[in-house]
Amino acid sequence: MCGIVGYVGARRAAPLLLDALKRLEYRGYDSAGIATVFKKLHVKKDKGRIHEIDRKLKLADLPGNVGIAHTRWATHGKPSRANAHPHLDSSGKVAVVHNGIIENYLELRQFLRKHGHRFVSETDTEVIPNLISYFMHQGKNLERSIRETTKRLKGSYAMAIACVEEPDKIIVVRKESPLILGIGNGEAFLASDIPAVLSHTKRILVLENGEMAVLTPAKISIKRIASGAVVKRKPMVVTWTAEMAEKMGYPHFTLKEIFQQPDAVRDTLRAATGELEKLVKLLLKAERIYIIACGTSYHAALVCKYALAKLADMSVEAVISSEFQESCRVDGKTVILAITQSGETADTLKAVQVAKAGGAKVACLTNAVGSSITRESNIVCHIYAGPEVSVVATKTFAAQVAYLLLLAIHLARERSLPKSKADELIKRLGGISDAMRAVLTGVEPQVKKLARRYCSAEHIYLIGRGIGYPLVMEGALKLKEITYIHSEAMPAGELKHGTLALIDQGTPVIAVVPPGESRVRMAGNVEEAKARGATVIAVAEEGDDMKGHVDEFIPIPPTEELFSPLLYIIPLQLLAYHITVELGQDPDRPRSLAKSVTVE
Ligand code: G6P
To answer: What residues form DSSP beta bridges with 36?
Structure first.
């Protein structure tokens, strides 16, 4: 996730862009840059936080009344000056800022190299200005060249383009990544999010998928990219404060990030390519595999363990990082997969160092390009969830799970799963974001009611089997972290071996019942709890006849067992969030916890 912004008008662009970038920094902050047009393109950019770059380069000094800017959260290529946006074509006439992922950039790069274009960064973005200038060289104007370019791009993008040959305008294009336009008096703005422009205008146009817009000081004209047909749209008048806008109208970052999960999953699956293949090869050669992680990342590791056993017939161990050196042995044929969204968790870094000292090879899965774990690893894999502000991990969990499920399918294909079956599963996994969206909106009203009913509970128990077990662990962790209610997750079959003694009249028990062969046994465990007087809330497939046997039934649309974590976790996250709000607590800032724990 990155932030883009742009300005055309009568004022100097650079100071305005700098201010807007600071407001977008929550979207990414490993590098930033500004390009303005004044007789030629002027560019200042570097790695680092915006205030550091500004101190060094004096970003606001750039001349001109037209400009575009970017704050980056690295995806392709490490944070560096060369990889920072804006990117220029090799003739230095077209500048682009881009938020999104270009999937076919390698083949486009090859094509452009053959036509004399030179590349100075490792980014996917750099093909865009070069492709635009390739078409401009054929005599097409900027708008035409951009339309030709978008026909050839695969992936997602919100981008803004400035060009010395048509110096009084900025053109923007949108496919999937967000983009809004702000209408001022004799000036126009663009940005990834509303907060960036809110201090200048409250009149906002939201650009839709497949649309482009030409911004000049006098007007903004929107068109469909494919047909060129003009789109008429009335601006909306935003009454949010800047803080509300940063949360995109959600009352808390936690809720915003829960609702961003479908996008995090989509972006992660789309970007997983070369690094995933390397990881598959490494794991296939290993004699012993440990997946190590802490907190929420550990629950993703457990999902991976179940998925690998079921689908790829592989047995791996998922180990809590801080327990690793006490309980695990490594040698030269051991592979460690370290999962950490921040890439900075001390317990995980320590376990990795111990494993390396024993001769193990290390791969990592992280949300933070260039973080400490990436420097410790032989293979670095990324999720693309964008910065997660809330202390509780939600969208990074979903993105980790999506990546790990994709990994399991690839491993299974290399071992015994027929290619056609694997391809079919990959295709269906690609469609899971839409199902997640449906669950998010479908279950929230019911979950809100449940939150009111159960916010005064002293204990909540959660039971699950198989792939449902890591889910209830993650659900219990969410509840503990922000509601402060004692919550305990149990493998459903283990309930009768002790914890059942704690369940009596009215004790809330949440049963997570994904589809699959364990469903029948889950039904038995639900009956056990009910017989002791428990109030059972079941999260199960819609139409399941368990509905008639429980006190509350949260229906989830049909999906395969393997993908169920991505849907079944949603009501648990929402329940924790809404109970916290009912209790008058702040879900974004839970007591005693930190987002990234850098001590052992
Ligand atoms: C902290 C956070 C948790 C997180 C855990 C692991 O405890 O509060 O939300 O799951 O660290 O973080 P990591 O960055 O390694 O995934």
So the answer is: 42, 67
Report the b/e string of 80-102 with b at 16+ CB within 10 A. Answer: bebbbbbbbbbeebbbbbbbbbb
Whether 377 lines ligand 1, by a CB cut-off of 6 Å, is: no
CA proximity to 97, closest of 45, 62, 61, 142: 45
* Residues 390 and 257: beta-carbon distance below 8 Å: yes
* Full-model pTM: 0.75
Does the Cβ of 393 fall within 6 Å of ligand 1?
yes
Which pLDDT score, from 0 to 100, does residue 593 have?
77
Q: Dump pLDDT digits (tens) for 390-409.
A: 989 999 999 999 999 999 99
Distances (CA, A) of 436 to 262, 548, 563, 572: 6, 25, 11, 13
Nearest-CA neighbor of 394 among 303, 300, 490? 300
The tokens for 276 are 């995933």
**Which residues have a catalytic role annotated?**
2, 595
Closest to 99 in 3D by CA, of 179, 164, 168, 39 = 179
How many angstroms does the Cα of residue 223 sit away from the middle of ligand 1? Answer: 44
Q: Determine the distance separating the centroid of ligand 1 and the alpha carbon of 158, expressed in angstroms.
A: 30
Domain holding 482: CATH number? 3.40.50.10490
Residue span of the structural domain in which 353 resides: 247-430
Phi-psi region of 39 (alpha: psi -120 to 50; beta: other; left: phi over 0): left
Residues 461 and 529 in one domain: yes
Give 353-381 pLDDT, tens digit per residue. 999 999 999 999 999 876 789 889 999 99
Q: Do 157 and 195 lie in a common domain?
A: yes
Residue ranges of the chain with per-residue pLDDT less than 50: none
Decide if 364 is inside a domain: yes
Whole-number pLDDT of residue 214: 98
